[in-house]
Amino acid sequence: MSSTHRRRFLVFFALCLGAAAAVVPAVASEDGTTITIGASATLVARVEVDIHTVVNCAPLPAPASQMSSINLEEAVSKSSIARGSGFFPVVTCDGADHAVTAIVFADSSGPPFKRGQAVVTFASINVCTSSFPVVCEGGSAGPQVVSIHG
Questions:
Q1: Backbone angles phi, psi at 121, to 5 degrees
Q2: pTM of the predicted model as reported, rounded to 2 decimal places
Q3: Which strand (E) or helix (H) includes residue 65?
Q4: Which domains does the chain have, with CATH numbers?
Q5: Distance (Å) of CA 137 to CA 73, 102, 124, 130, 146
Q6: Whole-angstrom Cα distance, residue 84 to residue 71?
Q7: First to last CA, the chain
Q8: What is the DSSP track for 89-130?
Q9: Within the chain, how many helices (H) and strands (E) appear?
Q10: Exposure string (b/e) for 41-51, b if CB count within 10 Å is 16 or more?
């Protein structure tokens, strides 16, 4: 490719990219969401752990969609680890702190949870507006030790 053709291609590419940016709405992604994992959690029937958290996210217009996850691991014996995953209920994004209970279910192929120390290995929440243009924000936390009671 000659330098003239290369230059024309690059100019054409830049124009196409600029046109696409003008047509496609920008999606803002900000780390405006904080998750604070509490020191305690509640054991429910050995297969569920309710983890006490505080969530704060920047104001977003309603309605919004949410994706969330939380993972928990606990050594229940010298050779066995209980693992589970779960979710956060829908959070309100208004810039204020909200007490939220994340729910984790034990993996049915492993041992159940018990009272004692466990680790939230990872927790995340991503919230997006449902209106056009879509605006999203998210945050994560972990690892964090929690004490399971109940």
A1: -75, -30
A2: 0.77
A3: strand 64-75
A4: 27-149 (2.60.40)
A5: 27, 19, 11, 13, 26
A6: 6
A7: 72
A8: PPPP-SSS-EEEEEEEEE-TTSPPP-SEEEEEEEEEEEEEES
A9: 1, 9
A10: bebeeeebbbb
Query: 40: which 2 tokens?
Result: 């305690």
- Within 13 Å, how many C-alpha atoms sit on residue 49's CB side? 32
For the chain, what percentages of helix, strand and coil (3-state, to nearest 5) are there? 15, 50, 35
pLDDT at 97 over 80: yes
Task: Write down the residue that tokens 């230059």 correspond to.
Answer: 7
| DSSP β-bridge partners for residue 75 | 81
Q: How many C-beta atoms surround the C-beta of residue 146 within 10 A?
A: 21
Query: Torsion-angle region of residue 79: left (phi > 0), alpha (psi -120 to 50) or beta?
Result: alpha
Least Cα distance to 28 among 140, 138, 141, 144 occurs for 138
Classified as helix, coil or strand, 26 is: coil
Q: What is the pLDDT of residues 43-79, one digit of tens each?
A: 999 999 999 999 999 988 876 789 999 999 999 999 9
